[in-house]
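Predict structure. Chain length: 368.
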Amino acid sequence: MSMNLSGNSVKNNLWSDFCISKEPCFKVPLISIIILNWNGKHLLDGCLWALRSQTFRDFEVILVDNGSTDGSDIFVRSNYPEVRLVTLGSNLGFCGGNNQGVKVANGEYIFFLNNDTEVAATMLDELAKVAVSDPPQVGSWAVKMMRYDKRNVIDNRGCGYSAFGTGYQIGAGQIDDGSEQDNGLEWVFGPSGGAGCYRRSVLDEIGLFDEDFFFNNEDVDLSFRSQLAGYQCHYVPSAVVYHHGSATGGATSDRTIYYIHRNKEWVFFKNMPGFLMWKYLPFHLAYSTAWVALWVFKGKAKVIFRAKWDALSKWRAVLKKRQLIQSKRQADISCLDGLIDKKHLRDVWRSPSLPFKSIIYRVRQVIP
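Prediction complete.
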């Protein structure tokens, strides 16, 4: 596919306008881009216009509107009629909303993209070059997310998983100096939910986002299941996405604190294989206890204790999911252990306050 994107009038064109016949231009879009939106009308023009400017053309865009009340659906229909719009009657959260998008997608690859992002013009081109050449055991790809307002600062280079039994964003806040970190591909634990790509066949095998999570840590959970099933994740530094990062609800809102600290327990106990669970359980408990103490000190005792209680009270459901996940495990224990980042133990030993200097949060336009 190709399209000339010159001149001001092109903004009213569709990326499929050149298809003169009534027959589809291609049988199945290679990449399905799923964008979840909740009252993010003010973000959509930048996000969708950047997708129109892609040099790679074999893709479809599916925007799932999570029960917005700001006229987002009307805006998309009027200005971006090429976008497949899925309107939901209520807010299903990041997990439920994205899952609805996957169910109607046609692509061989599923790319999850936040609505507060703008992709570089060659992003899909760079991603596709790698994806189509990678062997089947590569099940997902992480892209380089940069901060929109400080484009030399990394937002993340995919997700990692630490010896404390918690996910984190690789490279968050680092200056991108073009050093050896971007000289080629590398393995990471998984892609960020804000901008990450999966093989459709892998999602069919391991399942979609766990809708019990609602939002936060769902990308870590999905990546863990992918790794357990024997699929690797490549980081593609040449595929660049710019991230605004203005979180709805705030990084320290009660709602965000609740979902972070409930869901990270579920990730650990659902996915960590038995031997590794006992190996890292002391570090996980110490880390979680420290966070509880911090939030109690900050006057958030009610929400942090509710998060932990709700995590534990669902132990039967978590155990059932764990049994299913572990029964399908294909990855070797030593390989999984090699993906767990131990340097956090060293960092905490050197600076006990370090974990509390950067509260992990994700921009999710899903909080009602």
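Summary: The chain has one domain: 1-368.
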